[in-house]
Specification:
Keywords: Membrane, Transmembrane, Transmembrane helix
CATH superfamily of the largest domain: MFS general substrate transporter like domains
Main location: membrane
Order of helices and strands: HHHHHHHHHHHHHHHHHHH
Number of strands: 0
Shape: globular
CATH architecture of the largest domain: Up-down Bundle
Helix content: over 70%
Number of helices: 19
Distance between the termini: 53 Å
Protein name: Nodulin-like domain-containing protein
Largest sheet: none
Number of domains: 2
GO cellular component, one term: membrane
Organism: Digitaria exilis
Strand content: under 5%
Structural class: mainly alpha
Amino acid sequence: MVAVGPALVAIAMVFVIRPVGGHKQARPSDKKSFMFVYTICLLLASYLAVVQLAQDFLHLSDNVINILTVILFGLLISPVTIPVALTITSKEDLLVEEDVLSEPLTGEASTSQEEEEGQPRSISSEVEEKSKDIDVLPPYERRNMRPHLGENFTMMQALVKADFWLIWISFWLGSGSGLTVMDNLGQMSQAVGFKDVHMFVSLTSIWNFLGRVGGGYFSEIIVRERGCPRHTALAIAQILIAAAHFLFAMAWPGTMYIATFLVGLGYGAHWAIVPAAVSELFGVKHFGAMYNFLALANPAGSLIFSGLITSTLYDYEADKQAHQHQAMALLSPRLHHTTGFLTDGSVKCEGAVCFFVSSLMMSVLCIVGAGLSLIVVHRTKRVYADLYRSVHT
């Protein structure tokens, strides 16, 4: 059932998905529908988190679990009410759409009137005029012209920009250190005495989702209402991950829950903020290639931070403890089968020392990433001021 689930959803969406051609085909109910789905997603994430914590701290009976499962399915099915409601009210929406189609005529008249009165035009009209001027130039001059931030870049043009590499390295440091926690979360929780490691994996996935939703929403507020570059939000997310790694290193009681929450939020925010920032600074014409290049930061970070640094330090501490246990076993045979090895014979590490050094290193790397993000903020202030000039005027 799980394997065919995505295919069934795709088939069901065929009957409700419609093409949207911009503001001319937008319905007045679109914003309400979006906010409804948005709210359901947040409620679902909160509900799953509460249920996970309740199962960890409380002993729930089978009847309670069945009731919670029914509520879960109710939340999952509730977004279906949107296409049903739109189907019922489709006639009213068609009438509204016909009215909207005639609005650009008056809008064009008002725009020309504003231009005659000397009011500033939007940045989109300026970009269109600039592109027309470029098209008039001879081919050899167009090839020699390099785009500026906020315009459409090719992949090769972006690779020679210092801003693109600052964004990539900052993204690599932040997402790579966050992914390191997810790769080693089972061993990290076992090292500090937790037996149910699956709970932290589930919670981190929930916090990851909330980070993607909240990071995108928060960055939009920063950009549109405060006029700050989007990487301001990324610097905050990286500071959260740095704080989480510090808590992992200290391994104080209860910090495992707080640290996984901060890592999930920060890591998810990376994937909401960075692609949006790249599309704003380097354009959307070749955004697919740039996004795939950004995605290389994940395996690169996992290979270096998790595969080389964290795993090497963990194995060193595990071997060190194993030798200590063997020395103690020679003195006391009763301790021979107590600690130091897993059931399959592999060496394990116990205690906060297992990830102390690696977590502190990841924390420092996140702080470096936050510093790089602030450099991007400083370098792109004017670009964002131009891009969102019409929003603030």
